[in-house]
Design brief:
By secondary structure, this protein is α/β, with parallel strands linked by helices. It is 35% helix and 15% strand. The strands form three sheets. It has a six-stranded parallel sheet with strand order 2-1-3-4-6-5, sandwiched between helices. The protein has a six-stranded parallel sheet with strand order 9-8-7-10-11-12, with helices on both faces. The termini are far apart. Bound molecules: thiamine diphosphate.
Length: 588
């Protein structure tokens, strides 16, 4: 059979239903193999960056392998952003690039290029992929394909790239006789019972414990176990940005998102804890503050991560588990069967304190003027979001306003890029998510800057009539960088306001035949959102806000997690603390 047909057979067997691509000569045979197939189809995008991120969105939304394809040269290099994002955020994706015929390769010759668009994509992506292979011989396809799929999904997931030259794509193969590789996926390690018992002891003797849930919880599909564990132990829980949708926000144990732009109540909770169970989180400086030694100074830390290199990397923990989160939680719950952890009210004072943080420092306040307040907008949006909506969030201030205030509950998801944090990622991510979960309403939250990076994908939304609701928060600038310039560059808004402009988005969106509305006042939010979610058709809403809106609270460089801007009066901050304040604000 033709090798390109075989590739699609294997992908379909692996559960892949859609492949996101932009066509090109070097992809010709692979694309031709889709013709007439019912079990697997293409989604033709309008930029390979968007195709790569759509595959990422498909994988994030479904937990299944995401696949994108692009032609050699510019097609391949345009996919780098999505590949890197999957690497940093541990998303299982396979990227297939077409390549010039092997007999057109330059190999070791000291020329820059031989075949048209010949580009060594394998070497280019190796530092940001779990692995990358060039299929040089047809009879290796079975082995390499199976290896690529397994590597992408196993252990700590991530992207793998397969570069398939044209003459290999069209080769005739006999799959039954091909070499096959047997990779033994890492057997889940069983937790060391003695170490788990130590953790139990630590929990029992702790009076201010907190669980910190990261992206690893969802990646290991452990969100249900986590809920059970939290409820069994009664331990309050905060999340990182990546872990935001790993726990229902309407559960009384939920205490917000921590970090530079985290909720003040979440940061205070972590700062004052005496025990942190950090699950599937890197504890990077956006979570801990730039001086890790100031982070949760009074706490013992138990750190669980599937990747041994992440343990003791930024923060030194007291107890380390190189484990899948599910194995850790199951191990703990097995020990707890004997009922030793019944909370019995011991944690009540701690929970009351967390409640008082929440009441005093809420994630939004009632606006005092007509102008749309972005946190208030997110609060109202939560009321209208369907219980199973998938929210895809772009990068910038809008990412932080959404994360601070949206109430994620039910089977809602919050999908956003953490490590790569590429502007323009939300719309293609929503397209991928929509194909993975066709029965769900997908919501895009984007800024005016980010929207323009992949605005062409409105055509993909229109073409497939996807139930994608796009919400654009328009501050007419690159707000996140502008805020930075206001703080650190005396308000010199070079390239964020100066030199920046955007079009009338309603006109642009209408040209793609998607209905578009615009609001400017808080009192318009509810009615417009009600209309937006009235049906399952694509729709667009622009909410215009003031250019100088800021994301607050914010943790500045060198400051300890509890001391965000706007700074609390010293006495007020002290009244919130169980542990000693640092002598000078931010200084050590
Ligand atoms: C591809 C890319 N280029 C540049 C950046 C740097 N960057 C981060 S946030 C941001 C501003 C985003 O502006 P906008 O989309 O309007 O959202 P806002 O911050 O105003 O809410 C920029 C330029 C980035 N993250 N990604």
């Amino acid at each position: 059979m033709k090798l390109s047909d075989y590739v699609l057979d294997v992908l379909a067997q692996a559960g892949v239903t859609h492949v996101f691509e932009v066509c090109g000569g070097s992809l010709a045979h692979l694309l031709d193999s889709f013709y007439g197939r019912k079990d697997i189809s293409t989604v033709s995008m309008h930029h390979e960056m968007a195709a790569s991120i759509a595959a990422e969105g498909y994988a994030r939304a479904s937990g299944r392998l995401g696949v994108a394809m692009a032609t050699s040269g510019p097609g391949a290099t345009n996919m780098i952003t999505g590949i890197g994002s999957c690497f940093f955020d541990s998303i299982p994706c396979l990227f297939i690039t077409g390549q010039v015929n092997t007999y057109e390769f330059k190999f070791d010759r000291p020329v820059r290029q031989k075949g048209f668009q010949e580009t060594d994509i394998v070497s280019i992506v190796k530092p940001i992929a779990k692995d990358a292979f060039l299929v040089e011989e047809a009879d290796k396809i079975k082995q390499l394909l199976c290896q690529a799929i397994q590597i992408a999904g196993s252990d700590r997931p991530g992207p793998v790239l397969l570069d398939i030259p044209l003459n290999i794509q069209r080769a005739d193969i006999e799959p039954g006789t091909l070499r096959y590789c047997t990779i033994n996926p890492l057997q889940p390690k069983s937790p060391d019972e003695k170490a788990l018992n130590e953790v139990l002891e630590m929990i029992r003797s702790s009076s201010r414990p907190v669980i910190l849930a990261g992206g690893g919880v969802r990646i290991s599909n452990s969100q249900d176990l986590l809920l059970k564990f939290a409820q069994m132990t009664g331990i309050p829980l905060v999340t990182s940005l990546m872990g935001l949708d790993s726990f229902p926000h309407d559960d009384p144990l939920f205490a917000g998102m921590i970090g530079t732009y985290g909720n003040r109540y979440a940061n205070l909770t972590v700062a004052n804890s005496d025990l942190i169970l950090a699950l599937g989180t890197r504890l990077d400086t956006r979570q801990t503050g730039t001086k890790p030694e100031t982070f949760a100074r009074g706490a013992k830390i138990v750190h669980v991560d599937i990747d041994p290199h992440e343990l003791n990397s930024n923060i030194k923990a007291h107890c380390l588990f190189n484990l899948d989160i599910g194995s850790f939680l199951l191990g703990m719950m097995k020990l707890m069967k004997s009922g030793i952890l019944a909370d019995g009210g011991r944690l009540m004072p701690w929970k009351k304190m967390i409640m008082s943080y929440k009441t005093r420092y809420p994630s939004f306040r009632m606006p005092k003027s007509d102008a749309i307040d972005p946190n208030y907008f997110m609060h109202i949006l939560s009321e209208f979001l369907p219980d199973d909506a998938l929210v895809c969030v772009d990068v910038g201030q809008i990412q932080m306003w959404s994360a601070q205030t949206l109430d994620i509950h039910g089977t809602q998801r919050f999908l956003t890029q953490g490590g790569m944090a590429s502007m323009g990622s939300a719309l293609p991510m929503a397209i991928g998510a929509s194909f993975a979960k066709p029965d769900k309403v997908i919501v895009v939250i984007t800024g005016d800057g980010g929207f323009q990076l992949n605005i062409q994908e409105l055509q993909t939304v229109y073409h497939h009539n996807l139930p994608v609701k796009i919400i654009l928060i328009n501050n007419r600038c690159y707000g996140m960088v502008r805020q930075f310039q206001e703080q650190y560059f005396d308000g010199r808004y070079q390239s964020t306001v100066i030199g920046y402009s955007n079009p009338d988005f309603r006109d642009v969106v209408s040209a793609y035949k998607i209905p578009a509305a615009r609001i400017t006042r808080n009192d318009e939010i509810s009615d417009t959102l009600a209309k937006l979610f009235d049906d399952r058709n694509p729709a667009f809403l622009e909410a215009s806000i003031n250019t100088d809106c800021k994301v607050m609270p914010k943790l500045s460089v060198n400051m300890p997690l509890e001391d965000q801007e706007p700074h609390l009066h010293r006495d007020e901050l002290r009244s919130n603390m169980f542990i000693e304040l640092l002598p000078v604000p931010g200084g050590l």
